[in-house]
Amino acid sequence: MYIEREETRMIVEEKKAQYEIVKDGVYSDYTVINRHTDYCPFVVCWNFDIETYQWDQGHYYNDEASAMCEFYHKEKEAIDYILETEYLDLPDLEEGE
Known about the structure:
The mean pLDDT is about 85. About 40% of the residues lie in helices and about 25% in strands. With about 100 residues, the chain is of the alpha+beta class. The protein has helices at about 1-20, 65-85, and strands spanning about 20-25, 30-35, 40-45, 55-60. Strands 1-2-3-4 form a 4-stranded antiparallel sheet.
């Protein structure tokens, strides 16, 4: 068991050395990372885990501009969803009330 934990720790440390977190989502569960050593180095990750440096799903890009465009699109979708769901139940206030 100890060997497996040590191997896992080494893999995570290696990923931390190679991967740079470019932007973390405020309203969405998306994170942009730069994997400096790989083809298509920029990844827009969904559910990125900072402890293990793993993610559930990703969109891969050759350049940072394309990755950031996708990231901000996801952030806007999250904001729009929040606005639609949170403000739907607000009462309409008429003047003088």
